[in-house]
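Write out the 3D structure for:
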Amino acid sequence: MSVLVSKSSKIIVQGFTGKEGTFHSSQMIDYGTNIVGGVTPKKGGITHLNLPVFNTVIEAVERTNADTSIIFVPPAFAANAIIEAADAGIKVIITITEGIPVKDMISVNNHIKDLDVILVGPNCPGVITPNEAKVGIMPGNIFKKGKVGIVSKSGTLTYEAADQVVKQGLGISTALGIGGDPIIGTTVKDALKLFIEDNETDIIVLIGEIGGQLENDAAKWYLTSKSKKPVIGFIAGETAPAGRTMGHAGAIIGGNDDTAKAKKGILSQCGINVVDSPAEIGKKVLEIHNKNS
């Protein structure tokens, strides 16, 4: 089992023929990801990267049975692209686009809330299940197959955590970058639940940051779930000054629970193994792995 994407996923790329879509699609294809086609309005009928291009998502789904989409559409059009994919029956929508207006994402979430669809992002690095599917912009070479799941708001720290885990002789089941915008589809709690339920994940690394309550909500859910699956937590932004926007658009320190120190305290109280530096993640994963072996 894998989380969200696997070798059996049938993936289309929205914004397929654009610069970003072309570059990252090439990388995903080289990795072995099962991309079955792409969508670019008014370019349907041509072939791009040896794959068919369709004018609409519904046409792509009808012709390829696609169940997953990755979006490289400019911010002004990305919300409509998400809605189009959801309405066409795509089950997993991974939105890489950065800078989608908040009001557009509110409309998106309202539209898809009753649909059978999982939205990852926007402004995220995507999802990778090593040796099976890379649906995103992450460097695939640093991810090796294993039993450690990663959920992160930060793309860079996702790669750092994966590299550390691999250097300790372990590997990754799936790495899920949820993005750090104020409004995203899959929350920290949603992602944590996916990994808790995944029988191929033995240990979970949760990387959060200052601003908002998503990490706190996830930690409180974890406590009430009574799961025995160990979670390692890190919160970025320890030195950020209060009231300042730092890093991601959603990383605005507000109330007392929004600081890195406060979040780390809440995670710890809820049974999560908190580390103070990303440099400690790999060693902590190995320590827990050896303890449970």
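The mean pLDDT is 94.
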